[in-house]
């Protein structure tokens, strides 16, 4: 890419609640300015742009990054944009781009919309490329999972691809550098997790949310507790359990509940054997650490 | 196992016998040394005090059961069959080495002050409790057991088995203890069993 030419970005919305757009627009000022100085956002349906999506298609305009927010369906009865189904739109636009990025869980794997029973062909973009377009891309589809994706994940991905041309992806198509860790890492409640002190109800600072509130932090690949939301907080810091929005199975049923058998959690943290986990927690529970059983600030 | 470990286990086995025969407080370190044909001084090379020995002994005796239950847990059989097998193994232990079970019932459960420091909660019996957790967890996740809190379920198993060991120790059972095995197992199973609707 030439220095003076900013890479062109097109943001397409398919079946979506607009959440990733909200998330992106709430990026901190400096980052947003950096993005706007370094990229040319040629089209976004929620923002005023010089060109319409119809014109982009008709004039066969090429661009560098296609960001897709929302799930894809070929069924026009449920959803259409400028007369195209999202499936048609995606398969036309993919021929004009260098990189294809799914922004959010719906675009990545279908997300919430894939649970809609009346329309069975709702999918993520990876599954929605026609056979002829499947191998057209020079780089595999990048899945920025999350409900929504963090603005920083979007911006970092764009810069990595712009500057280095590639990103290492995990087996679910997510950039490794963003999703290698767990939401549990950096959670301010880790000490409570260690000693099995559970939170008493939502919104409290004291206690871990694992057993009683359904926290998925120990099983969810994301860096939420390292790259904070709005630079200051996360769900778990604020007292809301992680509901695993970056994972393939999102949204699960009964998200605020940890499934238990006879009081024992059905799933234990990633790659820990249940026997080992139960024996450690059985012992940890027997410690009564005064400090962890009272208010942080009296 | 190192020779020191082996020797330690030997001492424990001997002390368990003495504890169950004469009671915990009536058994002294010199008594144990004498039964081992060891000098008292040498005994202290293995255990610094009777309290320390007591804590080792509770780990030792529950680990015997933990190992048996672990083997059963790893078998590819129904949870009901696991309950039956475990009950059988437990009662076999009561029969063959009553001192091991008696130690748990008569020393560990009734002399809590000895174990207050260093054996808090499940600390010294954790391997065993873990295996019971695994047994219950699997039974409930494959819908053989109904959902309930852990402790009532735990108490159903341990209460029934412990009670039986007690009856056997008191020598009030009319038949050989092994003949009760299936019935005890059935009681435990029925208390845990999943019921439709
Ligand atoms: S609240 Fe969740 S992420 Fe935080 S320590 Fe507990 S389990 Fe981990
Ligand atoms: S904390 Fe969990 S649910 Fe919340 S945004 Fe991060 S991954 Fe999603």
From TrEMBL, chain A:
Cofactor(s) annotated in UniProt: [4Fe-4S] cluster
An annotated GO cellular component: [Ni-Fe] hydrogenase complex
Domain of life of the organism encoding this protein: Bacteria
Keyword Iron carried by entry: yes
Chain positions recorded as [4Fe-4S] cluster 2 binding sites: 184, 187, 208, 215
Boundaries of every NADH:ubiquinone oxidoreductase-like 20kDa subunit domain copy: 17-160
Localization, UniProt: Cell envelope
A biological-process GO annotation: anaerobic respiration
Keyword annotations from UniProtKB, A to Z: 3Fe-4S, 4Fe-4S, Iron, Iron-sulfur, Metal-binding, Oxidoreductase, Signal
Cytochrome-c3 hydrogenase C-terminal domain: residues covered: 180-254
GO molecular function, one term: 3 iron, 4 sulfur cluster binding
Database matches in Pfam families: NiFe_hyd_SSU_C (PF14720), Oxidored_q6 (PF01058)
Keyword 4Fe-4S set for record: yes
Binding positions for [3Fe-4S] cluster per the UniProt entry: 224, 242, 245
Positions contributing to [4Fe-4S] cluster 1 binding: 17, 106, 147
Subunit structure, as described in the record: Heterodimer of a large and a small subunit.
Family of the protein in this entry: Belongs to the [NiFe]/[NiFeSe] hydrogenase small subunit family.
Protein name per UniProt: Ni/Fe hydrogenase
Organism: Halarcobacter anaerophilus
Taxonomic lineage from the root: Bacteria, Pseudomonadati, Campylobacterota, Epsilonproteobacteria, Campylobacterales
């Amino acid at each position: 890419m030439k220095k003076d030419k900013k890479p062109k970005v097109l943001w397409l919305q398919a079946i979506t609640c607009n959440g990733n757009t909200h998330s992106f627009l709430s990026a901190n000022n400096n980052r947003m300015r950096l993005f706007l100085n370094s990229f040319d956002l040629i089209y976004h349906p929620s923002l005023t742009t010089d060109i319409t999506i119809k014109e982009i298609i008709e004039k066969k305009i090429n661009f560098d990054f296609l960001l897709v927010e929302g799930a894809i369906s070929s069924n026009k009865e449920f959803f259409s944009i400028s007369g195209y189904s999202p499936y048609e739109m995606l398969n036309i636009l993919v021929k004009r781009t260098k990189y294809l990025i799914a922004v959010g869980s719906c675009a990545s794997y279908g997300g919430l919309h894939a649970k809609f029973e009346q329309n069975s062909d709702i999918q993520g973009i990876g599954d929605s490329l026609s056979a002829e377009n499947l191998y057209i891309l020079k780089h595999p589809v990048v899945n920025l999972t999350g409900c929504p994706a963090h603005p920083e994940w979007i911006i970092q991905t764009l810069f990595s691809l712009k500057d280095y041309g590639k990103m290492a992806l995990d087996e679910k198509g997510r950039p490794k550098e963003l999703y290698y860790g767990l939401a549990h890492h950096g959670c301010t409640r880790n000490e409570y997790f260690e000693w099995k002190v559970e939170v008493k109800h939502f919104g409290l600072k004291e206690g871990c949310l694992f057993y009683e509130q359904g926290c998925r932090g120990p099983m969810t690949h994301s860096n939420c507790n390292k790259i904070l939301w709005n630079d200051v907080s996360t769900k778990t810091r604020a007292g809301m359990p992680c509901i695993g929005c970056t994972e393939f199975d999102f949204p699960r049923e009964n998200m605020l509940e940890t499934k238990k058998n006879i009081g024992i959690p059905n799933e234990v943290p990633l790659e820990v054997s249940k026997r080992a986990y139960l024996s450690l927690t059985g012992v940890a529970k027997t410690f009564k650490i005064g400090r962890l059983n009272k208010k942080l600030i009296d | 196992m190192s020779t020191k470990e082996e020797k330690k286990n030997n001492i424990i086995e001997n002390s368990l016998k003495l504890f169950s025969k004469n009671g915990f407080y009536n058994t002294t370190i010199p008594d144990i040394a004498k039964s081992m044909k060891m000098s008292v001084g040498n005994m202290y090379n293995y255990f610094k005090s009777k309290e320390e020995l007591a804590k080792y002994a509770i780990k030792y005796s529950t680990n015997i059961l933990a190992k048996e239950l672990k083997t059963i847990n790893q078998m590819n059989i129904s949870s009901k069959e696991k309950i039956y097998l475990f009950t059988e193994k437990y009662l076999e232990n009561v029969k063959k080495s009553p001192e091991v079970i008696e130690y748990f019932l008569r020393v560990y459960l009734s002399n809590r002050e000895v174990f207050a420091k260093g054996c808090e909660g499940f600390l010294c019996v954790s391997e065993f409790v873990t295996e019971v957790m695994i047994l219950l967890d699997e039974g409930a996740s494959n819908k053989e057991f109904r959902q309930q809190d852990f402790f009532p379920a735990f108490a159903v198993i341990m209460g029934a088995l412990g009670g039986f060991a007690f009856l056997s120790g008191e020598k009030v059972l009319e038949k050989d203890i092994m003949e009760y095995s299936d019935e005890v197992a059935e009681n435990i199973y029925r208390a845990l069993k999943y019921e439709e609707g």
